[in-house]
Design brief:
The complex is a heterodimer. Chain A is of the alpha+beta class. Helices cover 18% and strands 37% of the residues of chain A. The radius of gyration of chain A is 17 Å and the shape is globular. Chain B is 74% helix and 0% strand. The longest helix of chain B has 29 residues. The chains are: A alpha+beta, B mainly alpha. At the A-B interface, α1 and α2 of A face α2, α6 and α7 of B.
Chain lengths: 119, 164
């Protein structure tokens, strides 16, 4: 029962903090659109996965976790799974996560001269 | 993005064939989501209509007949809701298990099911006394009100899963 009470407290807190909460990882509110970044690097690891694809992008000095779009959207917009291979050069434009200093949400990605909008 | 680390059984679920398919097949995840939504629309929609009757709306309709019709749909909708919910859980098992919105959602579902069980075990036994045109007894109205709140909370947590 105390566990249940704790859950209700957590629920209240969640509702107060709301969708713009510190830990938000869905949608765009958890990312700082005032700090647009342009990163170029090499894909170390890629996931063409639901709910969002991702790449680990090695740039000089830092490896970023870059959040992409749902795979069905990337496929529709001409960015198939095969293009997100480790070793490939990629450039992303996006916004850093407000709390996770390693994570960036990409607005668009450019691979082999082709830019795909991800939003 | 969440690494598949945590209790062994959660890792096993997440790395299972179904877990991988849910994450990587292009259209499986959205299809499962859609079936889950259709399922809980039937589940919660019919439960709400029954709860509102307990609270006194539509008193001309016999409670026993509404229970027979509506709650049958609620129960059968679980055939859609439970497997699809399970598949989505498996896709991100280690992440979900740590997600406070998910933990609360499970607690609320358990509470809502207990509430329904208590309602059927106690006030509903005597439904013949208040079937039409008579206010339902307080325990029945409380069960109806609680059900509205609990299922609304379940839906809210389900949506908020993605934000935590």
């Amino acid at each position: 029962m105390t566990r249940l009470v704790r859950h209700f407290v957590v629920a209240g807190a969640l509702l107060v903090v709301g969708a713009g909460g510190a830990a938000a990882h869905h949608g765009w509110s958890g990312y700082d659109s005032g700090k647009e970044m342009n990163l170029t690097g090499t894909i170390k690891e890629a996931g063409y996965e639901h709910p969002h694809g991702f790449i680990r992008l090695e740039t000089p000095g830092k490896t970023w976790n870059v959040v992409l779009a749902p795979p069905s959207r990337m496929e529709n917009r001409g960015l198939p799974r095969e293009q997100l291979k480790p070793g490939t050069k990629a450039t992303v434009v996006g916004y850093p996560n407000r709390t996770d200093p390693e994570e960036l949400r990409a607005e668009r990605i450019t691979i082999a001269g082709k830019t795909t909008e991800l939003r | 993005m969440h690494p598949a680390t945590g209790p062994a059984w959660l890792v096993w679920l997440e790395t299972s064939g179904l877990g991988v398919a849910m994450r990587q097949w292009l259209w499986l995840y959205p299809i499962v989501e859609i079936v889950h939504i259709v399922g809980f629309v039937i589940l919660v929609g019919s439960a709400f209509m029954f709860d509102l009757r307990l609270l006194g709306l539509g008193r001309g309709l016999p409670v026993s007949a509404m229970a027979d019709h509506l709650l049958r749909w609620s129960r059968w909708s679980l055939v859609l809701v439970v497997p699809t919910g399970g598949a989505m859980f498996i896709a991100h098992a280690t992440e979900m298990a740590e997600n406070p919105a998910f933990q609360l959602k499970v607690a609320l579902i358990v509470t809502a099911l207990l509430n329904a069980a208590v309602f059927h075990r106690f006030p509903f036994r005597a439904v013949g006394d208040w079937d039409t045109e008579i206010a339902a007894p307080l325990p029945a109205r409380l069960a109806g009100g609680l059900s509205l709140l609990l299922w609304t909370g379940v839906i809210a947590c389900g949506r908020l899963l993605a934000y935590f």
